[in-house]
Amino acid sequence: MKEKILRELINNKDKLITGTYIAEHLNITRSYVSKVINEFISSGHVIDIQDRSGYIYRNSNKHINITKKDINHEINNIYILDKVDSTNKYLKELANNGENEITVVIAKEQIAGRGRLGRSFVSNSGKGIYMSILLRPTFGIELSKRITSLTATAVSEAIDEVTKLNTKIKWVNDIYVNDKKLAGILTEGHTNFESGKVEYIVVGIGINLYKQIFPDNLDNIITTVEDETNKVFSINEIIESILNKLIYYYENIKDNIHINEYRKRSYVINKNVELNIHGNIKYGKVLDIDDEGELIVLINDKKETIYSGEITKVRLKDE
Ligand code: BTN
Predict the structure, then answer these.
(1) SS3 content of the chain, % helix, strand, coil (to 5)
(2) In this model, does residue 177 exceed pLDDT 90?
(3) d(CA 76, CA 98)
(4) How far apart are the C-alpha atoms of 259 and 241, rounded to whole Å?
(5) Ligand 1, atom 15, residue with closest C-alpha
């Protein structure tokens, strides 16, 4: 029955339809219609209520329909796909065929979503943002390295702006909230070995937005925006905010204007951590993050700069 009520509303999108009409049409009570419509609203459908029993269906917060016009910056293209193996892989193929920057690929579902270090990224249908952005830097590899930290900054800021959460960045670029992972970023580059020039960079962003069932082994370590807020926020608003911020930081990459915010949002500064540096396990206390996004760690009373690797454990204060 709920499905039928939803269909009535969607079939009359942007038009006023009364509770009495739906009730009579489907042979149910008006109070049941009103109860079900309230349920739809809390699960992310945008429905205007007029004079208490008139309804106008607008859209679903979960429905992706962002366009180039919604972004404050020049964008080449936004592709929205129902299903793909991986948006990063798809966009790299477009890039190899000459696609221009700035091109965005967003999928409702990924069947082979990829994470860092060969891991997979759970990408259930309609449950999150699975998005890749193609950049073709005109500057060298040194500046290009900043793309990782500027993306993490943009994603963390955008989520907080829309949801009022207080997300943190776990070096290098995982987004955490309440000690659980909410989002991850996978940056892949293609360099021309002969010229040493960066041909393109594909930045992949995955964010768990809505409640869903995760594999058992991940249950206690990852979370979703809906689990943390009990709200269904608009997927388009979050995508729009990420792209606006990311492109702005990218255009200003030389000035490194994102780095203070990156540091401020760090989940690891002043914490004791376990590091996996290419298979080598080290323990230390994170002192700071430098202007290039590298980790300054005190290991056995010696300051070390960590350029790449992974923080495998963060000791919480009360541990
Ligand atoms: C990580 O947590 O290790 C990084 C996860 C990155 C996931 C995103 S989802 C969109 C893009 N396509 C992929 O296959 N991966 C990235």
Answers:
(1) 30, 35, 35
(2) yes
(3) 12
(4) 18
(5) 114
